[in-house]
Amino acid sequence: MSVCVTIDRDLCIGSATCARLAPGAFALDDDEIATVLDPQSVALQKLRLAAGACPTEAIRLVEEDGGRDG
Questions:
Q1: H or E segment to which residue 68 belongs
Q2: SS3 content of the chain, % helix, strand, coil (to 5)
Q3: Domains: count for the chain
Q4: For residue 48, which of 28, 33, 63, 35 has the smallest C-alpha distance?
Q5: Which of 8, 31, 46, 66 has the highest count of CB atoms within 10 angstroms of its CB?
Q6: Residue 49's domain spans which residues?
Q7: Per-residue pLDDT of the chain (70 residues; tens, 9 = 90+)
C-alpha cells in the first residue's frame, strides 16, 4: 500500500519524535523542522506510530485507499 506523507511546517515544533520513531522517513532540517525523507523506506506501522506520537499533529498520512491517519 502506498502512502503520501506531509508535514504542516507551521504546526511542527521540532520535537523530533517522528525522526526517532521512523528514521529514514523523517529528519529535522536546518530550521529544526521535520521534513519527509523516504516514507517508503519504513513500514506503514512505523509511519502511523510517528504520526500518532507527533505532539502537534503536524504529520498527515494519506493511504492509497483514501483513508486518513495521524
A1: strand 68-69
A2: 25, 25, 45
A3: 1
A4: 63
A5: 46
A6: 3-69
A7: 689 999 999 999 999 999 999 999 999 999 999 999 999 999 999 999 999 999 999 999 998 765 555 5
Please give the grid coordinates belonging to residue 23. Answer: 528514521
Nearest CA to 14 out of 69, 58, 61 is that of 58
DSSP H helix total and E strand total for the chain: 2, 5
CATH code, domain with 17 = 3.30.70.20
DSSP state of 3: E
3: cell is 502512502
> pTM for the complete prediction?
0.85
